[in-house]
């Protein structure tokens, strides 16, 4: 295996609040190869967005602090890089788009100006050339009449168009990595599918690696090569899309998969929610954080944190059920005993 | 845009009409009908008034005459002094008030916005606290107190500037300071809040994710968005200040609109009060109208319907 | 680390109680606000300062050997001394007593007129927001129109009509200052009418009374209290300005504004005469403004982290 484009190792991030320190990210490992699309999945507040924003250090500090671990991007550790150097990476080597395209563009500046600004921050090119490249980029993300669109203000764009413009802005300097923080969450379902298709085609054309943060397993299935499932600030399972969807080994992943609607397969199949809420990370439990909501919980789960078990080259999980002493149970997704 | 402008213009005219009518009614609601009080008004003036304004006619007719005079630019005459018209008072007082007001607005808005920006960028640090303290003091301490302090320290003790009076640019110094300080305080406070609000917006995160430096983020994406809500307030302030400050003009003995109006109140010169209020209202409404139009230019989101 | 035994791997199933455990203490809105206010040292100091000023205003004149209006021709214009803590004025009246009875007058006018403001504002804003549509548009346009002229000018006009006096000042400030309160209440009511949680409460069968008690009052109280804290100093300010211009309370009554005006006349020779009333006035305004800021931070649930 060649050196990964992005390699996050044992990352710890916390936020200072009035009530104490909230440990938002507690030892996350994650890696991304060139040209790969990796999805990070989890409920609200599981630390997935914090992880993503920490890569380019967008969380204001204070209250946010990186308490440990490393983020290697092309071999450089971003956690210790001066903020000035990080700013040079932002937009040029690492692009980022956000959840709500309605509020993510400056309302008082023309869309074109905002894209041109991204180019001219990183490259010494004339305004004319920057304009031409922006038009080209808008065309690439599927915006018709790009020359006219350049002169319009964000409020003249629809939600889907704005997200396209955001993507154009993030990719206009051809970054190696695009971080997409819930890029489809605020959009209509049909628009969601278009944005997913767009991201896939851009990977083809530009070879951009994409780290996509989402809570939508449907989006994951459509777009990702590999998946990382996060819960309460930790990675509970990770693997290729096939491994996660066809051979999931963590009860939380089972829960996530059972809560996806599958229309038309079987009328009797019901959506099964995961009861309860994640633990408060102000005071995380000593054992497995999912134990209180887990149907298969054992006494040990409440007392000790499980180790990560390597199931294949690409597949790993953090669950006591993988221990040799654990009872064999029937996997509710595959139907096999394991 | 044309439709929007016309609509605003109509609104301005309605506003003006309501204010002037209310003032007219108020002035005629004074017990004992002072407009026809023959003991207090000299007979020559009374005769003049009757001839020109029909003060002996029914109220509704007087109103008609008054409004049609106003439309023709005649703000009325004094009840107290023969040969004194409101127009002449305005002609003398308005340029004076406007000079002082413009000077105060210039430093008030300029420095206020600057301080607000500095405080907003340095949230929770020394410059922020300094601006907070300055602005809370400026808002809390009445301008006549500042005026007295300045008169005592810079005027009487240090003798850097004349204590009171009008006529040369040096006379502007102390009243401008006294008037401007309060504006600086208000504007700085609002601008700070507005800056903090904008800095927490998603598009600022986008700007940072593009790799812009903090300076670029502030200059290109924060300040303009933060100034928008200030425009309305500043507009009203400018209007209020241009037509003079009752207190400051009295303290510094400046022959401006504010001083004439307060004198008219003390003299119970009702026609002058009415006429000057009408003029006030015109200026205020005109400035509001200009601010509304400015808003559209600054913020492309404002709907033009 | 404990040795892993077979028993540890017995299934125990999930723990729904714990899964829904909430680690942070649950509090009611006002308890939470009070907790945050208590943490704010500046706001609490302001509260104590205001309480002290209020107590002094009530009791200082009662226990002093001097009276606010009795003159002493043998002790005119005395500098502060053990006998007269704040000195005496040109008529030999004790300024300590005059300052505190001035506090009574200023605070009384401010409190009463603010209460009336709040009442009018709540009723007006409530009706406007509740009915919405055309009624709302007309009512709010009217507020807008009235507010295009500064408060102080309306108050002065009303004083001209009603004549000077304690009651007339209260009435004048009361009927001019309710606009911002009306806007706030209207905004809250409108927002609440459309909010999904009120819809949810209604769907769950909550009656009108319950919705008012559980949703309307807690949601509106915060902004009302904040606005109240800011409108008291603005009433104090208006009254002080009027009295400073000699358009306020009649002699021998004195408010802080009157005292400051009297002091300003002898500013250059006897600055202590303006110092004390101006200081008390500024401290009170400062106290209310700082308390208001603290309350705003404490009562805004969005700021909770």
UniProtKB/TrEMBL annotation, chain A:
Boundaries of every ABC transporter domain copy: 6-257
Location (main, coarse): membrane
Mode of membrane association: Peripheral membrane protein
Record-linked SUPFAM superfamilies: P-loop containing nucleoside triphosphate hydrolases
Signal peptide stretch: none
Subcellular location: Cell membrane
Gene3D superfamilies in UniProt: P-loop containing nucleotide triphosphate hydrolases
Entry GO MF terms: ATP binding
Entry-linked CDD domains: ABC_NikE_OppD_transporters (cd03257)
Highest taxon of the lineage: Bacteria
Keywords, comma-separated and alphabetical: ATP-binding, Cell membrane, Membrane, Nucleotide-binding, Transport
Family: Belongs to the ABC transporter superfamily.
Name of this protein: ABC transporter ATP-binding protein
From TrEMBL, chain B:
Membrane topology: Multi-pass membrane protein
Domain of life: Bacteria
Occurrences of domain ABC transmembrane type-1 (ranges): 94-295
Transmembrane segments: 9-30, 94-117, 129-154, 166-188, 226-252, 272-298
InterPro entries documented for this protein: BPD_transp_1_N (IPR045621), MetI-like (IPR000515), MetI-like_sf (IPR035906)
Keywords, in A-Z order: Cell membrane, Membrane, Transmembrane, Transmembrane helix, Transport
PANTHER family: DIPEPTIDE TRANSPORT SYSTEM PERMEASE PROTEIN DPPB-RELATED
Name of the protein: ABC transporter permease
TrEMBL record, chain C:
Classification via InterPro entries: BP-dependent_transpt_permease, MetI-like, MetI-like_sf, OppC_N
Protein's UniProt keywords contain Transferase: no
Keyword Metal-binding applies: no
Membrane topology: Multi-pass membrane protein
Domain ABC transmembrane type-1: 103-292
Endpoints of the signal sequence: none
Keywords per UniProt: Cell membrane, Membrane, Transmembrane, Transmembrane helix, Transport
Family the UniProt entry places it in: Belongs to the binding-protein-dependent transport system permease family.
Name under which the protein is recorded: ABC transporter permease
